[in-house]
Amino acid sequence: MSLIKSISGIRGTIGGHAGDTLNPLDIVKFTSAYATFIRSNCPDGSGKIVVGRDARISGEMVKNVVCGTLMGMGFDVVNIGLATTPTTELAVRMSGADGGIIITASHNPRHWNALKLLNSEGEFLTKADGEQVLSMAEAEEFNYADVDNLGSYCEDDSFDKRHIDSVLALNLVDVEAIRAAKYKVCVDAINSVGGVILPKLLDELGVGYTILNGTPNGDFAHNPEPLEKNLQGIMDEMRSGRYDLGIVVDPDVDRLAFICEDGRMFGEEYTLVSVADYVLSCMKAQGVDSSRLNTVSNLSSTRALRDITNRYGGTYTAAAVGEVNVTTKMKEVGAVIGGEGNGGVIYPESHYGRDALVGIALFLSNLSHKGCKASELRASYPDYFIAKNRVDLTPEVDVDAILARVKEIYRNEQVNDIDGVKIDFPDKWVHLRKSNTEPIIRVYSEASSMDEADALGKKIMHVIEECAK
Questions:
Q1: Which is the catalytic residue, given 106, 120, 166, 297?
Q2: Which label site among 46, 123, 203, 213 has the fewest CB atoms less than 10 Å from its CB?
Q3: Is residue 1 pLDDT above 50, yes or no?
C-alpha cells in the first residue's frame, strides 16, 4: 500500500486501486473532508480556497479533481497554477482565503503526489485539526452543494510577483548590497517550479545565473531530495570556477541547499545556520535585547544553530520533528528565525513556512555584507557531522518499551522525549525516532567528525538490539 494518510495531508503513488494509491476517488474523499472542516471552522469566511501545484506529471490531473471537488462543496476556487509551496501559503493570506491546498509530494520521486492542507493563515493544519480531517474522511461526512450554490473557479497568476515583492521588502534583505556584489550563480531547479520563479527573483536581485534542469515538466533530472549524493551534476558545474554560489531547491521550493564556489557542499544543515547568523547579527547590531534573539529547529537538526544563537546571547529551543511543530514552538518562544536542518528556513517577518526564496535573499545578503566566498563563510561555523542509521525490528517488538528502556539507561545524561528519545552528551547527541508505519527505529547522531557520529549511532543501535532481545 502506498497511500499514506497523515495530519498534514494525503500522499501516495499515482495509479492502482482505490484505497491503495493516490487516485481520483481518494482525492475526492479527502478534499471533501478538508472542505467540510474549513466550512465548520470558517462559517463567516470568504468561501475561497487557493490551489497551487508543483510541476509533477500528475499535477494537472490531481488539480482538476481537487478544484472540481471544492466547487462541488460550494467553495470558490482560486487556482494559482504552477507555484511553490511558500507562494501558495502566502497566496492564502494575500487573497483572504479560508484555506489552501498545495499539490506536491515535496522531495518524493516523480510517481508520487500529495495534498498538503493549509488553514486561513496559510499555515499547515495543527495535529488536532489534521486528525479531525482524517476522521471526517473516514466517516465520509460530506454535504455537497446544490446546483444554485456551486462554487466558482478563477485563475490568478499574480502571486509569483507578489511573493518576490514581499521578499525584496523584508528589512534584512539588502538588495543594493547584493546587486553591487554582481554574483554569478548556478541553480538546479530539478525541472519543477523553481525553474519558473527563481530566475524572476534573481533578476530582481541583479544576480547573473545559469539554470540547470529549469523546464517545469515534472520529469525530475535526478532524485529530487537536495542531498549531496543526488547533486553531482551541479557540483561538477560549480568546479568550473565560473560561479560564486550553487543553489539547489526541491520540487516545491521549500527546501534549500547551497554549494560553495569550489564545488563542495555548503551543507544543507548549514542553510539555516548561515541565515540565522545573519539575522541575529543584524538584530544584535540594531541593539535588540538578547532576550529576544531566540531560535528554534527540530531535534534532528545540527547543534550548530544552538552554538550560533549562544554566540549572540540568544536562546535556542528544540522542537519535535515536523514543520507545524517547529512553527508552534517558534510562536511559543517568540523565535526570530527557525526551521529545519533539511534546508528549511522559516522567517516569521515573512510568514510561518519554509521558504527557499527568503533563504536565498537572506543568504546572499549575509554573503555580501561579509564580503567573503561561500567556502569562507562555511568555515566560520562550527563543524558537525550527522550520521543517519536505522534499526529494523520485528512487528511483535514493543518499540515504545525499547525507547523507554534506552531513556532509563541514559537517565544521567540530558534527555529530551518530546519526539522519541534524544540524548545530549557534552560534545555530541543521538536522536531515536520510531516509524509510524513500520517496526523501525531511526537513529540520527551528530559529532565533530563523521566517524565519531557513526560510532555513536552504532553504539546506540547495539543498545537497542540488546533491549529487543
A1: 106
A2: 203
A3: no
Question: Residue 348: what pLDDT?
Answer: 98
Sequence letter at residue 325: N
Q: Quick check: pTM over 0.85?
A: yes
The verdict on whether 106 is a catalytic residue reads yes
